[in-house]
Design brief:
single chain; globular; 8 helices; seven-stranded mixed beta sheet; alpha+beta; Alpha-Beta Plaits; 2 domains
């Protein structure tokens, strides 16, 4: 028989919610699930919804900071947000959050998420070719997931598809790539204006696809 845990455990839902991870209701329900007072099925029934997730990340951010300094990097983030947020709004994103050099947006329709990604890449290129661009222009890459996610946390998106979309957008994609999870690909594979190429990485534990607009 294991010994009792000898240290304090934080289970005050109000204090936990003050850390801005989840709200009080979510913490209360998670605690109830852990105690066996609420089933996992009931928890998922309450919080799950089906959404497409677009995870956008800026490339070369660390290198640009080292070369041009912090202010130049902040201006690159600002420029990327100025270009991208109007596109996300135009294509129907109902939730957008910016943090550091990342943007997360949710869509009901995965087609809208993919179209928004292509349009962001196009407008970033136009912006960089204009007289508004800095010496170190913004470059972005995108990961897209689609499926059942938990509508909890600041992004109202936690779960497997959110994790995969973030991994693709933040760690794997290169500018100006758009990478899709397998579920996002399956939902979009009938599109005739897009070429989907399955990608292979030795250290990647889930399949993903690169999407390229053909017109």
């Amino acid at each position: 028989m294991s010994d009792a845990y000898p240290h304090e455990l934080l289970e005050d839902v109000e204090e936990l919610a003050g850390l801005r991870g989840w709200n009080e209701e979510v913490y209360r329900d998670i605690l109830a699930t852990q105690r066996g007072e609420l089933s996992e099925f009931a928890f998922r029934e309450k919080y799950c919804w089906r959404r497409a997730i677009l995870s956008l990340d800026m490339t070369g951010f660390t290198a640009t900071t080292m070369r041009g300094g912090e202010m130049d990097s902040l201006l690159r983030i600002f420029n990327a947000q100025k270009v991208s947020v109007p596109v996300l709004r135009e294509y129907g994103s109902h939730l957008m959050r910016c943090f550091a050099d990342d943007i997360v947006a949710l869509f009901e329709d995965p087609n809208a998420a993919l179209d928004a990604a292509f349009e962001i890449h196009r407008r970033i290129a136009l912006f960089n070719a204009s007289d508004l661009a800095s010496d170190h222009p913004a470059e972005c890459c995108v990961g897209i997931g689609y499926g059942q996610i938990l509508a909890i946390g600041p992004n109202l998106a936690q779960g497997d598809e959110m994790n995969k979309a973030s991994k693709l957008g933040e760690d794997i994609a290169r500018a100006p790539e758009t990478l899709l999870t397998e579920q996002a690909h399956d939902a979009l594979s009938s599109r005739s204006d897009v070429v989907f190429e399955r990608q292979t990485l030795d250290d990647q534990i889930f399949p993903f696809f690169q999407a390229t607009l053909t017109r």
